[in-house]
Design a protein that fits this description.
There is one protein chain. The chain has one domain: 3-Layer(aba) Sandwich (Rossmann fold). Helix content is 31%, strand content 28%. The chain is an alpha/beta fold. It has helices at 69-75, 106-112, 127-137, 144-154, 158-161, 174-187, 204-217, 230-236, 264-269, 274-280, and strands spanning 3-8, 11-15, 29-40, 43-54, 58-62, 86-94, 97-98, 113-116, 192-196, 222-226, 239-245, 256-263. α3 (127-137) packs across α4. The strands form three sheets. A six-stranded mixed sheet has the order 8-9-10-5-11-12, with helices on both faces. Strands 4-3-6-7 form a four-stranded antiparallel sheet, with helices on one face. A two-stranded antiparallel sheet has the order 1-2.
Length: 285
């Protein structure tokens, strides 16, 4: 039976216990993050983050604006490497491999760890060519039609577009465009999909479609999602990490820090840290 958790006096969120969440001893670690500090121009965006992210689960990253949530997930596929003056310290072990170790190709990292952004960003190409783009770039051209169909089917979009694959992707609705971006990400058969506020620009119906999609696809993929929406985190995530801002230093600056990380049900019902409780109940943030 769903447990109701008060988020704000006028709002309630239904939190269904994650019956499928395996016990800790049976979880397979995908990312082992140790003392991660990320800086832009010497200014830390997040400081000393340590946590593990598990296979075939949805992990939500929540917290107030400016606490480094997007910076954190972009570290997981080295997307921040594209930002001038970015520097990372600590370790990110991906299946035991140091992602910042010598000889690691960032492009290969991003092939294994895909990303879907806040706003749908289909290429100004046909629906077919959007999904086929990464496949062609990586030389995965054998059975191309079947690969495109499979990705669109996984993204619950095939039945809606199968008769108009040559149509411009820009003619799709916002929700369809975002599912197309998910299809494009999973077409190259990644291990992990990162989603940075993937439904913030969508209406409730399209948002529900994206959430249902994550539930279906986590059998095949590991998801890490940044969201400001408490109800969304409660609905889709198996594990939840709450980030907040550190106290101001002598220079007045604050950086993002991991406050608490646990099973989603525990984060929303019996958090261990008062700061987490204050945030999920709407007392701050």
């Amino acid at each position: 039976m769903a447990t109701a958790v008060t988020i704000q006096p006028e709002r309630r969120v239904d939190l269904t216990p994650q019956a499928t969440l395996p016990p800790p001893e049976r979880r397979e670690t995908v990312f082992d993050i140790r003392g991660l500090t990320a800086r832009y121009g010497g200014v830390p965006a997040i400081s000393d983050v340590s946590m593990e992210i598990y296979e075939n689960l949805v992990t939500a990253v929540i917290g107030p604006s400016g606490c480094g949530k997007s910076t954190f997930i972009r570290c997981l596929n080295r997307m921040n490497d594209l930002v001038p003056a970015f520097r990372a310290e600590g370790e990110i072990l991906y299946h035991g491999l140091d992602l910042h170790g010598p000889g690691i190709d960032p492009v290969a990292v991003r092939r294994r760890i895909g990303m879907v952004f806040q706003k749908p960003n289909p290429f100004p190409k046909s629906i077919y060519d959007n999904v086929a783009f990464g496949l062609r770039a990586l030389g995965m051209k054998d059975g191309l039609d079947g690969r495109v169909e499979h990705a669109l089917t996984q993204a619950a979009l095939w039945d809606e577009v199968k008769g108009r694959l040559k149509m411009s992707a820009l003619e799709l609705s916002g929700g369809q465009q975002q599912r197309l971006c998910i299809a494009r990400a999973i077409a190259v058969e990644p291990d992990v999909v990162l989603l940075d506020e993937p439904a913030s620009a969508l209406d409730p119906i399209a948002t529900s479609s994206i959430e249902d999609l994550m539930h279906e696809l986590k059998r095949d993929y590991t998801f890490v999602i940044v969201t400001h929406n408490m109800q969304q985190a409660a609905r889709v995530a198996d594990m939840t990490a709450f980030f907040s801002l550190s106290p101001a230093g002598e220079d007045g600056r604050r950086s993002g820090m991991l406050v608490e990380y646990d099973a989603t049900q525990k984060i929303f019902t019996t958090p261990a840290d008062r700061r987490t409780e204050d945030y999920v109940t709407g007392r701050f943030g």
